Amino acid sequence: MYSEDVERAIRVALHAHDGQTRKGSADPYVVHPIHIALVLTRHGAPDHVVQAGLLHDVVEDCDGWDVERIEAEFGAEVAEIVAELTEDKTRSWEERKRAGIEKVATMSADAATVKAADKLHNLSSMVRDLARSESPDAFWSHFNGGRDRTLSMARELVEALAPRVGEDLARSLRATVDMLASIDRERRA
């Protein structure tokens, strides 16, 4: 059973991401933070980490939200994790992804766990969408880094995260990025 604080974070995520969709998909964006919360819960994360997982993109992608508002509504622990995970959208895709990989070594264990759950869901969605796409090129056209850079950055991030998170989560990340590369090869053959 979720706590009232987690339920409140679910409601905020639903409202804040209202009308947003996942990249290259008609899926409501809120499916992503909810899936992250499920992964975190399955891996035994405490409520404040689950809340941060639900809210991890709110500051970055939603009007009217900043770290101070997260702190006021959910407390310092949640706000600190969200702040660690928030990308600077004024930087290029390459700069943001490189900074994210480099930051893994120094981020808190809680932030690394949320980042891993985030990456696992992103990779899982990519596996599903690539398998369903009309062509690999059509699929990869939705990504700023294209095929090669997106796969390379994903693998680098997974390898940076693996020693920071539990064995089960690390294994899932590696298996999913391997599956993405494998499906891409199969679709191109």
Automatic annotation (TrEMBL):
Pfam families: HD_4. InterPro entries: HD/PDEase_dom, MESH1. It is an enzyme of class 3 (hydrolase). GO terms for molecular function: guanosine-3',5'-bis(diphosphate) 3'-diphosphatase activity. Gene3D superfamilies: Hypothetical protein af1432. Keywords: Hydrolase. Its EC number is 3.1.7.2. It comes from the Bacteria. Residues 25-132 form the HD/PDEase domain. Coiled coil: none annotated. PANTHER family: GUANOSINE-3',5'-BIS(DIPHOSPHATE) 3'-PYROPHOSPHOHYDROLASE MESH1 (PTHR46246). This is Guanosine-3',5'-bis(Diphosphate) 3'-pyrophosphohydrolase. It comes from Engelhardtia mirabilis. The gene is spoT.
